[in-house]
């Protein structure tokens, strides 16, 4: 059954001092995808070895506070691996924490993240690579871009993955590529939301950046970052919002959230208040319609 949210009533809840708006999104990304002060396998540094051995990588985010200009403390509680939702984070993912930070603290130069248990013990320290400017390549044609303009294959921020057999390739028409993107995306409706997850990595469900990466990967053979902040930084060619076309990448507030345009004022995405992959309205009076800041074309 198609999961959708046609009329969005903006809501927010205060979690540990940070205002969390619906939607995922992703990220001052981790250096090299997962740079940190210690490895995932030993992330419970300072915790007795027995506790570290049994420590779960799935956690519920209880709250987050920006304690300095570039530092955030996230309070968590371990949960079972079957849990999902827009407050569930998999610490074993290379981009789960960074995608959450991009969503909860958009346009903030966050470089350090401390993860602590609900008893106050810090068990993980991460250093993020803050990206505050868009790559010149994505805006090179923005001022003169017109409907039908040629886009190089692959577009900026993308490589072709020869190991997959996409539904459409470089030689197919734009309409066939669009049909492939929509087909792959809609087949994922109701997949659960988990920060940092991507089915391509053998995981269950997606966050918004990883959902977009998976769709273009299997529809067109494109390989790109699963970080929504990195997607904002360097993926695709910027086009005017008024020229938005089905299959375009939609970006909200520097990668706080991302999705794919379906036409008819609808976007398919992971999260966005749904807790899963689904469709939300982009109408002029809708929540997400008012939040849209960037449109990128990838083919």
Automatic annotation (TrEMBL):
The residue range of the signal peptide is 1-25
Transmembrane region positions?
none
Q: Please, which domain of life does this record's source organism belong to? A: Bacteria
The record, for Pfam families, names:
NLPC_P60 (PF00877)
* InterPro entries per the UniProt record, alphabetical: NLP_P60_dom, Papain-like_cys_pep_sf, Peptidase_C40
* Segments forming domain NlpC/P60: 175-299
Its keywords, alphabetically, are: Hydrolase, Protease, Signal, Thiol protease
Give the UniProt family note: Belongs to the peptidase C40 family.
Which protein is depicted?
C40 family peptidase
